Amino acid sequence: MIEYKIEKPDFLKISKERKAFLNENMFKLFFKYNLFKYSNETYYYWDKIKFQTLPEELENHIELWYIVSNVRILSYTVVNDKNGNHFLLEKPKFLEELLHKLDLSLGGTFLGMNFNDNERKIFLQNGITEEAISTSQLEGAMTSSKDAREMIQKGRKPITKDEKMILNSYKAMNFINSEEFLEKKLSIESLLELQSILTKDTLDDKTEEGRFRNDSDEIVVQNSTGTEIYHIPPNEKILQEELKKLVSYANDEDSNFTHPFIKATILHFWIGYLHPFCDGNGRTARSLFYWYLLKKGYWGFSYIPISSVIKNSKTQYNNAYIYSEQDDNNLTYFLVYIANKTKQAFEDFEKYLDKKRKEQKSVISLVSHLGLNERQTKLISYFLKNNGSYTNNSIHKNYYGIAIDTAKRDLEYLLEKGFLIKQKQGKYVNYFPVKNLADLIK
Fold first, then answer.
1. How many Cα atoms within 13 Å fall on the side-chain side of residue 32?
2. Which of 21, 49, 190, 434 has a CA that sits 20 to 30 A from residue 2's CA?
3. What's the CA gap between 75 and 88, in Å, rounded?
């Protein structure tokens, strides 16, 4: 295998005279030609810069990159590379609006909306389920989203290794959402526990569960064909030193304030860079990202499956790591990528909410005379559009996050009203909509 290296322009090709001109007029040229657009929501590296329109006062794209890269204002982070050099970071202007929007999700509202307890439970279960599925698919799980969703909602035991991976991720998301875990400080032991939950019964070597890698494991990050190495993690000694720093940073033991979203993103990157385990590093990194934001009160992130948008841009995700390491430790590439995907996930959720609320209004007007509770109303709505489907006590309980007795009462009431029929299938008693459901509710 060969080690992958990004293309870098040679600044030595710029003559002394031209370099003197560029240094003297750098900020003038930067603002005159609106070059900050390459360091904002689109945070370009050389491989993109070399294809942009060249300002008339510049002779070549190397000069353009010289200006763009030198004007970037970078600050030190606590993250060190394997050579002891700090990773650097800047905060692009577009982040201000996103961070403000995130701050509005603190407290009792999310995206400017108030949710009742029932809605929160539904959105929480949906968000956790979708994140568990997507974060596993990112790491190669081949189970379809539909089958995985059905497995979780019906409480079916996983059959394949891929299904086990998804169920483990679901358990891990519930674990980091639990009051017990959120109230505790992060520790070396809790990191190991999290990785153990994520990888349980899915690894060829069971001894790799719940332990950190060592030098003899020879762990590297490589492409899918195994022909190129993207990243060689720090050695065992450096790993142990950096993990102590990471835990301290996650527990806010440093004196400098960093916005929680930026800090969560740094933790996400840090775990990915250290690659502390033989397997489960990506899932652990994304779980830690969620944990920190939830711990800081950004509970709306429970509803937002970030991995669902990341999995559709996996190459960009990988490149964000690669550029951050290979472009002189500029972690901003990773921050901008995660910020853009978070923004996209928010927009997708807003569209989903709008659609669901319109559907709910339509159904409520249709069945308001039946005296059903909100869960029963939504179930009738679902069956009107999916007449061949079914539910049971376990599915109803898991979907709404309610007690099993409450689930039984909901379904038995609909059975008594004649809207459902029930059949015993194996160990489950399943409830199906009657064929003339649409006529009955009129």
1. 12
2. 49
3. 5
| CA atoms of 151 and 174, how far apart (whole Å) | 16
Q: How far is CA 107 from the centre of its chain?
A: 21
Task: Average the pLDDT over each of 35-49, 94-108, 205-219, 258-272 and give the range with the smallest value.
Answer: 94-108
Going by C-alpha positions, the residue among 294, 289, 299, 297 that lies closest to residue 115 is 299
3 state SS of 404? helix
Instruction: Specify the DSSP class assigned to residue 407.
Output: H
Is the per-residue pLDDT at 37 higher than 80? Answer: yes
Q: What is the DSSP letter of 389?
A: -
Phi, psi of 109, rounded to the nearest 5 degrees: -120, 160
All domains of the chain in start order, with CATH: 2-72 (no CATH), 93-350 (1.10.3290.10), 371-440 (1.10.10.10)
Which residue, among 295, 279, 274, has the nearest Cα to 231 in the 3D structure?
A: 274
The predicted model scores a pTM of 0.86
Which of 409, 410, 414, 412 has the alpha carbon at shortest distance from 440?
A: 414
Q: What's CA 303's distance to the chain center, in Å?
A: 11
**Backbone phi, then psi, for 43, in 5-degree steps?**
-110, 95
Type of residue at 169: S
What is d(CA 66, CA 419) in angstroms, rounded to the nearest whole number?
70
User: Which residues share a beta bridge with 89?
Assistant: 75
Judge contact between 276 and 314, C-beta under 8 A.
no
Give burial (CB, 10 Å; 0-12/13-18/19+) of 232: middle
pLDDT at residue 113 is higher than 70: no
Task: Render pLDDT for 55-80 as a digit per residue (tens, 0 to 9).
Answer: 999 999 999 999 999 999 999 999 99
pLDDT surpasses 90 at 196? yes
